[in-house]
Amino acid sequence: MASISEDSGEETPLQVRLNGVATFIGIIGLSVAVAVLVVLLARYFTGHTYNPDGSPQYVKGKMGVGETIRGVVKIFTVAVTIVVVAVPEGLPLAVTLTLAFSMRKMMRDKALVRRLSACETMGSATTICSDKTGTLTLNQMTVVEAYFGGEKMDPPDNTQKLSAAVSTMIIEGIAQNTSGSIFEPEGDQAPEVTGSPTEKAILSWGLQLGMKFSETRSKSSILQVFPFNSEKKRGGVAVQGDSEVHVYWKGAAELILQSCTSWIGTDGSKQSMTPEKVGEFKKFIEDMAVASLRCVAFAYRPCEMSDVPKEDQRADWVLPEDNLIMLGIVGIKDPCRPGVQDSIRLCAAAGIKVRMVTGDNLQTARAIALECGILTDPNVSEPTIIEGKTFRELSDLEREEVADKISVMGRSSPNDKLLLVKALRNRGHVVAVTGDGTNDAPALHEADIGLSMGIQGTEVAKESSDIIILDDNFATLVRVVRWGRSVYANIQKFIQFQLTVNVAALIINVVSAVSSGDVPLNAVQLLWVNLIMDTLGALALATEPPNNHLMQRPPVGRGSL
């Protein structure tokens, strides 16, 4: 089975099962060979083994040493041949053939296999922990709702009610606090927006507001950058204009709201963040989340130049995250991929539980899960839908008990995904995980099979994965499962075929040895049967394509065959 173990230090589910079967068959074959050897030797030395003319092959006192040794060697050769026939040495050939065949076919289905054994491991998967953005959704984000100056903007790019000062701050925050960029070609060509899907959506919305990206960035200088942090769910930047320093923050709406002590009105006036206003913001966030929108908040904080470290000391400067002033919130729509509902329904019928792990808040995660079909009841509560922070605060034993029940995890960090994978594996699941970011690498490596995204995935994620989904589509994962189950089914057919021939040959030889003291198939004939059975059988049965019936069976456990 070295052909499918490769450089992995851990046995795959198929390898575990096949090693058990091969060991069992080998023990049976060896036992039969020893029994045949004992019977033939006993009959030979007692004179009950006869030549074709009816005379005994061994006569005590009348046989030379050479003749006696030749008779014993002949009997021993038959016993060894029985062991050779019984041991399934053709099994590695069949496994390698079906894995290689499946790998080439999966490439046509937009799945690039990086590790050969991943073909069959996916067929044993009992649960899939999937990202939302780009996998379950189209990854085509656009800003469809906006709430600035304490009022809803309809349409979201309508800034007529906002004062020039507020609009300037919004545009400056968008242009400076981003990891994306906008290339503005000459002539009538449309600007090219780059960056993550969320960044592209916000930058495109900024263009609709009248933002001139290069001009806006040139008006102020960046003093310090706090890149987006997946744990804190926010990113910030400190910029210096003509007379003052602004620290802009952008991130998860409900988390940014917790850090705000005031908000900016449509006229640019600073208002205190009263409990009533907090409730109004929360209501708007909840309404957007229920509509399956990703909520991103913008806030800022003015700083005195005296509070800014000198240039040679800014490397250790931690941007202030408290006492922020809320600018507003946008709702970003990312529609579900066509066919995702059917794919998830197919997984459910196949006994595979799909779990969505996302950084969005629980309301948005719930709405997307309902739209995709992961959830069927909108009123579910913990632990079916759980927040990453709640999950990580549980003990190891509690996490294992809760993990089985989780369908959706919102506001999750990469470490939360890793903890979920470990808990599910400890519960005996064969876990498949999708990921596209550098921070997803530990979870991809820990899972039984890691699937990275070919379009949005980073190189680190791809290097840590077993299969690369070239089109970032969840439906491709389902096709990978079908091919994985086909691998198992083909190997199962080969084992059934081989066992049929093995058992028939063994029974014929044992019965004949006990009854007549001879075997009907000599060593050469048994080896010919073994050669034909292994090679031609493997070629015929290892290359059968998958069929729809494979997705109507429950997944196979680690220890069964």
From TrEMBL:
EC number: 7.2.2.10
Transmembrane segments: 21-45, 75-101
Keyword annotations: ATP-binding, Calcium, Calcium transport, Calmodulin-binding, Ion transport, Magnesium, Membrane, Metal-binding, Nucleotide-binding, Translocase, Transmembrane, Transmembrane helix, Transport
Membrane topology of this protein: Multi-pass membrane protein
GO molecular function: ATP binding; ATP hydrolysis activity; calmodulin binding; metal ion binding; P-type calcium transporter activity
Catalytic activity, reaction form: Ca(2+)(in) + ATP + H2O = Ca(2+)(out) + ADP + phosphate + H(+)
Pfam family, one: Cation_ATPase
Protein task: Catalyzes the hydrolysis of ATP coupled with the transport of calcium.
Stated name of the protein: Calcium-transporting ATPase
Species annotation: Triticum turgidum subsp. durum (Durum wheat)
